[in-house]
Amino acid sequence: MKKLRSATIEQIQEVPGIGRKTAETIAVALAQAAPAAPAVNTATGEIIEDEEPDTTGGSSGEPVTAGAPDDRRGQKT
């Protein structure tokens, strides 16, 4: 939605089946709509960041598996 909200009418028209009139309607509707509240992990209360590609070479985004805390961090006991 973030990318669609910032797209131009011409960019929206690039989607197959969407003409100029529909693209204009979409752009107007998204400009008037309030942005959604941030997503929250209900188990931890943490705010979930946008799903942007990780260019830092960090975590793969895989969830931590259950186990002893040292196992989860890859540490040996």
UniProtKB/TrEMBL annotation:
UniProt keyword Glycoprotein present: no
Pfam families xref list: HHH
InterPro entries: HhH_motif, RuvA_2-like
Single GO BP term: DNA repair
One MF term in the entry's GO annotations: hydrolase activity
Sequence segments annotated as region (Disordered): 36-77
Highest taxon of source: Bacteria
Keyword DNA damage: yes
Keywords: DNA damage, DNA repair
Protein name: Helix-hairpin-helix DNA-binding motif class 1 domain-containing protein
